[in-house]
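Usage example:
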Amino acid sequence: MRTKKVTVLPYDKGWKDDFAAIQKELVSAIGELILGIEHVGSTSVEGLSAKPCIDIDVVLPDYSVFDEAVRRLAAIGYQYEGDLGIPHRHALAYRDKPHLQTHHLYLCPQFSPELHRHITFRDYLRTHPEAVKEYSAVKEEAARLFPDDINRYIQYKSPCIQKIYTLCGLNGPAEAKGSPTMKKIIAVNGSPRTAWNTAQLIRKAAEGAQSAGAEIKVYDLYQLEPFSGCVSCFGCKLQPNLGKCVCRDGLSQLLEDIRTADGLILGSPNYLSDITAGLRALYERLVFQYITYKKEPRSYNDRLIPVLFVMTSNASAEMYDRIGYTAKLESYQSMLGRLVGETKVLVSADTLQVNDYDRYDWTSFDPEAKKRRHETVFPTELDAAFELGKEMVLSPWQK
Ligand SMILES: Cc1cc2nc3c(=O)[nH]c(=O)nc-3n(C[C@H](O)[C@H](O)[C@H](O)COP(=O)(O)O)c2cc1C
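Running the assembly step on the lines above writes:
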């Protein structure tokens, strides 16, 4: 077995500067070819204990710039090593850079699943201090137990990582691992952003369900692409697939999971006075498959489950009645209630849309008020989401 000294250190603020120094060199070599340089891995999360090695993913728009990027990086001392068995994540090694902190450098096209995994994991930790605390403790203990055996160190911390992956949605399509009697709750983030308002609220609701003993599966809808809305094939109205969408694409597994779930959490930002195109596609496929086009029975679904529908928006809650959002939500609530199960709605309005309002020429918002609201009101909405997730399991509103 390969052995190597394992050193885990408490979080060091200097890692940010170490990253910035490496980033500066990279930008001067390949800045105009790339979309960005991401500090990933444990040193990128404030408060997290880590091996003192800076992990860096350089984001490429696509492979058209790959050869040129490799050529320019070679000119500043990085040798291309191949993908080392991980598709769309290309490693580069260096020998002599004593002025820079030890680092791992990778080139990833923007669609790279590995890049997505790194960023989702990092962003989840950056917004969940309790997970940082737990993961730090596990890493420190692993290093204490196996200081000379990197493989056993990795093995020891793996269950903790898997737990966080489930919470981030990175284990989404995997099979539920709970006991057969354990309730299964599916949560779907209908925002293309995987770490912002909607994502955080639906994850909190899922955590609430988990705290009540449920097995949870969190999906980031836009990671399931390609998929479409209903294609009007009517396969769900024909034997042997009555009530079952037969269209095969990125939504198939999710629809199958919902079919056997004990509760469903759906979340969407308001996009142009409605839900996002992605969630609308899921909604069409989910709901239409159950419609019989008959007087009796009206639905093929006789297994109704509690549904929590989360909407986030720029508009404030006071505006909802006047601008038609309340009516819109009631219409989703009514359709879902009839065909999927009784639906509760949670609204998070007047959300923080970006961290750095100064960069944009936006005059409609008061950035300070937005920040204040995010710091004071948003946490109470996260709490409400947690409680609703818990309630969904302990006293489901759809019996
Ligand atoms: C394409 C697009 C359209 C939007 N349209 C609306 C809208 O009509 N009304 C509104 O209140 N907010 C609108 N917003 C703002 C988002 O709903 C709001 O920022 C939301 O909280 C973002 O969710 P997220 O942080 O989970 O991505 C829009 C945002 C985008 C990107």
